[in-house]
């Protein structure tokens, strides 16, 4: 059933992983999707897919973001998926890591929301989805200080937008995944040295005994894109990690 028929969606970080799966799921549900990513090679894998318009965009570049949204015009669904994972405890986190994590995980989301919200308010309708994580205010995760701090901020941002515009047709929700199979997770596992051991450790922290798939997270994004009575929520989808 096409639940997003006639809707126009923007997905950031759509070149791979959860963003890519969500762009494809939005399109399969009937939406027209602008699939944005900084990595043109990754986007090339989406070329030719029905109802998907790949666009190279660095969400850290404020001018490029403003120009992109001005060109797109109407946006009914915004999925802010771009994010970065830094390792390290509070004693190890550097100012540079913190700045980068806040810029990509938080400020970039604020800018895209500022770009789409006036139009959504004019139409009295819009769904904004922000990618947080279970590693946030939902759960403390070892060695993820900059990540957990900034993903907690994503939940704060989500609730702030939801509270301000709840009576004006805007829904804003956050997705909090557990550990999900994706290219960047693969790189993190490889970077730890012993790949098999790292993979086993990531799986071991998921009580279901397996990693999540990008498609499972995309299903929740489709639900939230079309949801009419859910706002201000940080929805866990984590294979039982936070039980
Ligand atoms: P990924 O990390 O493998 O891919 C991220 C994509 O973002 C890449 O295609 C990259 O080119 C793009 N990107 C990076 N910087 C960008 C920028 N400045 N502008 C535009 N695009 C940019 O994908 P993933 O692991 O599915 O992660 C996607 C989101 O989900 C992130 O916010 C991440 O924190 C979150 N998340 C992931 C997991 C997981 O286990 N994979 C768990 C919880 C939350």
From TrEMBL:
GO: which molecular function terms? oxidoreductase activity
Per its UniProt record, what InterPro entries does this chain match? NAD(P)-bd_dom_sf (IPR036291), Sc_DH/Rdtase_CS (IPR020904), SDR_DHRS6-like (IPR051122), SDR_fam (IPR002347)
Keyword tags: NAD, Oxidoreductase
Q: Which family does it belong to?
A: Belongs to the short-chain dehydrogenases/reductases (SDR) family.
Question: What is the name attached to this protein's record?
Answer: SDR family oxidoreductase
- The organism is Ectorhizobium quercum
């Amino acid at each position: 059933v096409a639940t997003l028929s006639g809707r126009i969606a923007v997905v950031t970080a759509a070149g791979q992983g959860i963003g890519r799966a969500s762009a494809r799921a939005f399109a399969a549900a009937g939406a027209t999707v602008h699939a944005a990513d900084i990595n043109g090679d990754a986007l090339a894998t989406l070329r030719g897919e029905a109802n998907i318009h790949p666009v190279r965009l660095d969400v850290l570049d404020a001018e490029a973001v403003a120009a992109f949204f001005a060109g797109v015009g109407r946006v009914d669904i915004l999925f802010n998926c771009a994010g970065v994972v830094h390792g390290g405890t509070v004693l190890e986190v550097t100012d540079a890591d913190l700045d980068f994590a806040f810029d990509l995980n938080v400020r970039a989301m604020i800018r895209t929301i500022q770009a789409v919200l006036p139009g959504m308010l004019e139409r009295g309708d819009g769904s904004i989805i922000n990618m947080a994580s279970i590693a946030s205010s939902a759960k403390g995760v070892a060695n993820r200080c900059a990540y957990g701090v900034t993903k907690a901020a994503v939940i704060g941002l989500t609730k702030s937008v939801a509270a301000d515009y709840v009576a004006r047709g805007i829904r804003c929700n956050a997705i909090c995944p557990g550990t999900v199979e994706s290219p960047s997770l693969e790189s993190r596992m490889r970077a730890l040295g012993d790949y098999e051991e790292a993979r086993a450790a990531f799986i071991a922290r998921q009580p279901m005994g397996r990693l999540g798939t990008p498609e499972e997270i995309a299903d929740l994004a489709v639900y939230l894109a079309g949801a009419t009575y859910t706002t201000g929520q940080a929805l866990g989808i984590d294979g039982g990690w936070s039980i």
